Amino acid sequence: MPLYWNLLRHVPSLQIVLHRAVWCAILVAAWLTLRQGRGWLREILAQPRLAGMLAMSGVLIAGNWSLYVWAVNNGHVVETSLGYFINPLLNVVIGVAFLRERLSPPQWVAVVLAACGVLWLTFNYGSFPWIALCLAVSFALYGLIRKFAAVEAVQGLGVENLFVFGPAVLALAWFEWRGGGGFFNLGWGGWTDVLLVLGGALTAIPLICFAYAVRRVPLTAIGLLQYIGPTLQLLLGVFFFGEAFGTDRAAGFAFIWAGLVVFAVDGYVQARRRIVAQQA
């Protein structure tokens, strides 16, 4: 994703996010209408509590998108990767606090190590890692709401995007009317417009996969594969975008990586024990 959004760095970040929301809503709504007819939306709106939960999740993910795209296009790719390194461990804390899931001693060690890493970055790197923490918290809360929202993954994504669709369209129309819009105006032989539209699909596919997963497994186990994404983002930030990664920042990341290793090893051991117990 950082490579993709970097292709659109000539478009203001807010407009990228607005287009992302609009085209994601259109693509998902079209797919649901083809599969289920027009009743998919009425089915959810008839349940006010569920509709309210999806409105909240829509606001959370829109805020997460906005911060992420702005950060990537303003030289903070490494810090965005930190946010997504923290997120799986934050899922563990939320699982304990809200879902009464229990942590093993190694998992507590992992959480403490990650917390030490964040504190180190805060006090030794010279600035509070607010981008990373906001990304981690917003996506963790999004996952929590989607876990409790009893709705099929694609249908939920379609509804939560429709809640932000109207404001996004109005904002884009205002930008275009003022002559500062990124659609039809910024050249590349029309490739800018194509990339803005395809950004909707790039948004929808990972969120659909995430929504399917978060309903089927405990939040304390959801995060292992999530480590791949931030690792790639970190490597891109350092080696492609040329962002600084000195010893102070490396030390903070080392604490977080140590926590992730402890958490991953404990998860593997617990999974092996369950398999052995089932076979016995």
Overview of the structural elements:
This protein has 280 residues and is mainly alpha-helical. The protein has one domain (2-279). 78% of the residues lie in helices and 0% in strands. α6 packs antiparallel against α11.
Write the layout of secondary structure elements.
Layout: H1 2-6, H2 13-36, H3 39-45, H4 48-72, H5 77-99, H6 105-124, H7 130-148, H8 153-177, H9 191-214, H10 228-239, H11 247-279
Helix pairs in contact: 2-4, 2-8, 2-9, 4-7, 4-8, 5-6, 5-7, 5-10, 5-11, 6-11, 8-9
Brief characterization of the structure:
Helices cover 78% and strands 0% of the residues.
- Taken from the alpha-carbon principal axes, the silhouette is globular
Structural class label: mainly alpha
How much helicity do the residues have? over 70%
- The counted number of beta strands is 0
Task: Give the helix tally.
Answer: 11
Order of helices and strands: HHHHHHHHHHH
Question: Can you summarize the main beta sheet?
Answer: none
Euclidean distance between termini CA atoms: 44 Å
- Overall radius of gyration: 20 Å
**Mean pLDDT metric:** 82
Structural domain tally? 1
Content of β-strand: under 5%
What low-confidence regions span 5 or more consecutive residues with pLDDT below 50?
A: none
